[in-house]
Amino acid sequence: MQKNYIILAHRNPKQLARMIDKLDDGQAYFYIHLDLRVKIDDFQKDINKPNVFFISKREKCFWGDFSIVKATLNLMEAVKNDNRKGFVILMSGQDYPIKNQVEINKFLSVNKDYNFIEIIPIEKKWKKKVVKDKIFHYHILHSSKRSDSNSYAPFFHTNIKQKIRILTHFLKGRLSFTNLKKLFQLPERKPIFPKQYAGSQWCAFNEQTFQKMVFYLRENKENLEDYYKFTSSPDEIFFHSVLMHLQESDVGIKIKPSVTYVNWDRKGCQLPVLFQSTDLQELIQQEQKLFARKFDVEIDSEIFNLLDETNG
């Protein structure tokens, strides 16, 4: 079963190298997008395989920003341009397989007609105000700091309360003059699709769906980017909405839940859960999952050994 792993990475080259070694069964290609702020040499020293490609078209990736979608699109284009066959699987550099190579291949072979992605209507994912911000307002990034952003309605298409909010943010130095001017010029924001969908960004597309996705993305590149570049956390909406739009006219697109396990529910800790040795049983009990995230070799390296020993 041929597989194409497209990977978003920005740290821990040795951890990434270990993940690739564990997934490399002779039937896999690896396409890696490194954040533009990271030195590529540090990764190439640890990862030197003929089936591993560090793509040259790189983005500076910011949390909650369209740059993450853009980086993913660059990876998809690289796979398409090389005419690869098989599944295309999106991972991060802090993922790790929780099944062995034989189990991964068997699972994908049995489910070769399916795509794996979490998809729910956007109205069921977030509260009404959040949905309104994502669909109708413009997401403005203030700096590279995590969560340092706001969503605004365009100045001439909102009520007095929101106008005061915009001007207050400007006077207090939160909103730059460039972005203030942009909000004065931007038109009313209208949804690009009648229905939008959301979910975790981690997904796997079979070959047929991947080809359809890339064709649609190329044909509608400008419109999609113009809209979603102003959406907060678009990686949680973009591919989901495009896929469901395609499915409306193509019943051959079948969907099952994501094959990447992420724990967002644990109490009393930073989320998503950073898995450690004490989480082994939780991980190996995920029968319908092939991968998990997040892991950090600098926090706990033993969990990698335990998973390898358990899975063989």
TrEMBL record:
GO biological process, one term: chondroitin sulfate proteoglycan biosynthetic process
Pfam families, sorted: Branch (PF02485)
Superkingdom classification of source: Bacteria
Compartments (UniProt record): Endoplasmic reticulum membrane; Golgi apparatus membrane
One Gene Ontology cellular component annotation held by this UniProt entry: membrane
GO molecular function, one term: protein xylosyltransferase activity
Topological category with respect to the lipid bilayer: Single-pass type II membrane protein
Keywords of the record: Disulfide bond, Endoplasmic reticulum, Glycoprotein, Glycosyltransferase, Golgi apparatus, Membrane, Metal-binding, Signal-anchor, Transferase, Transmembrane, Transmembrane helix
Protein name: Peptide O-xylosyltransferase
Record organism: Capnocytophaga stomatis
Lineage of the species this protein comes from: Bacteria, Pseudomonadati, Bacteroidota, Flavobacteriia, Flavobacteriales
